[in-house]
């Protein structure tokens, strides 16, 4: 009995010494509860996003399995490979023209125009070759992304050629930024 009474007094003494009033404790606990509810909601949204992503991956796997034996898939890959090689080669050449311009060397405008036209030809060759294929849903999405990138690449290359011909550093920088942003579609 003495032990129980001592424990009760000790608890009352500790409670009396605490600086928090019951209202403050309640407010703190409500804030904590609100934080936990926010975290729970965030995690539920993240879980939903991950579930949707997983569903999308499963759909892509099913589409891949279905399209695996489609001869147009292999043809499309070959077309894209040739396109990528051509674009890379032409953009590297264009980069050499830009480097020469920036180092103060004389830039042959005719060579820049040839490079610009080569980019345009590469894009047209890609579009013509893909136009002959029957694209699957997955390939159609990829093709749409390449078409958007091609529009940006072509415009940026035209601007770069114009900037080099006009000796316009500001336009050149804007065009280079535009060209770099074209990769967001790929």
Radius of gyration computed on alpha carbons? 32 Å
CATH topology of the largest domain: Four Helix Bundle (Hemerythrin (Met), subunit A)
Low-confidence stretches: none
Q: What's the helix-strand series?
A: HHHHHH
Which percent bin holds the helix content?
over 70%
Distance between the termini: 79 Å
Q: How many strand units? A: 0
Main β-sheet: number of strands, strand sense, barrel status?
A: none
Class computed from helices, strands and strand pairing = mainly alpha
Question: What does this molecule look like?
Answer:
This protein has 186 residues and is mostly helical. It folds into two domains: 29-69; 71-185, Four Helix Bundle (Hemerythrin (Met), subunit A) (Up-down Bundle). Helix content is 86%, strand content 0%. It has helices at residues 2-17, 22-67, 71-102, 109-131, 137-166, 169-181. The longest helix is centred in the N-terminal third of the chain and has 46 residues, at 22-67. The radius of gyration is 32 Å and the shape is flat.
Topology of helices and strands:
Layout: H1 2-17, H2 22-67, H3 71-102, H4 109-131, H5 137-166, H6 169-181
Helix pairs in contact: 3-4, 3-5, 4-5, 5-6
Coiled coil: 40-67
Keywords: Coiled coil, Signal
Signal peptide: 1-20
What would a concise description of this structure say?
This protein has 186 residues and is an all-alpha fold.
Give descriptors for this structure:
186 residues, mainly alpha, Four Helix Bundle (Hemerythrin (Met), subunit A)
